[in-house]
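Input sequence (203 aa), recorded before submission:
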Amino acid sequence: IDYIHSTDTLATTVGSTKMLELTSTKISGSATTTGSFGTLALGGSKIQGSIFVGGTLGVGGGQSTAFHVTNTNPVFRLQNGGSYFDYAHTSGNDLELSYNGGSALVHLTNAGNLGIGTTNPDTNLHIHKASAGSVAAYSEAVLAVENSGNTAINLLSGNGNHGQIAFGDDGDNDKAIVGYDHGADRFYVTVNGSSTKYLVVDS
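Predicted structure, token format:
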């Protein structure tokens, strides 16, 4: 162990290799281990200031990506004062986001289904406000919107513009359109890729 006064550096050397260097601004070196370093404390009982990792960082085990946490059901927490968000790897090997220890706000299954307000999404995207009862989404649906009472999907358009739902296939991305013209205040339907409104409903 050497203290180099010219650079104000505390160095640990094994053989001719500096394994660890400590200065007023950083910790560096080429030390590797297959055991444990125990606990590193700077500035008391916690690390204060900034830490820079030039390679990969592993927590709880070996690392294979830039930041790699290995644990049983690991949780990554972002906290501001008394409020926090938790990103959790669940026991079912899913990923979920929760707030202040409450129920999951967003839940992503390992099959790729995303639930908002539910941990058991029925399809690719399942938006859940409250349970509709013992019913699952239609098997062909890629979007499910669920509530215990009235349920709506709201298309908000500018004044004089159109709100539309377009139906397409591999030959035409707007084969048919169901729309509302806010300028004329009328509902319409087009079919077969035509701009002709075959059905128009106004007041």
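Checked by second reader. Residues 32-39, 41-45 have pLDDT under 50 and may be disordered.
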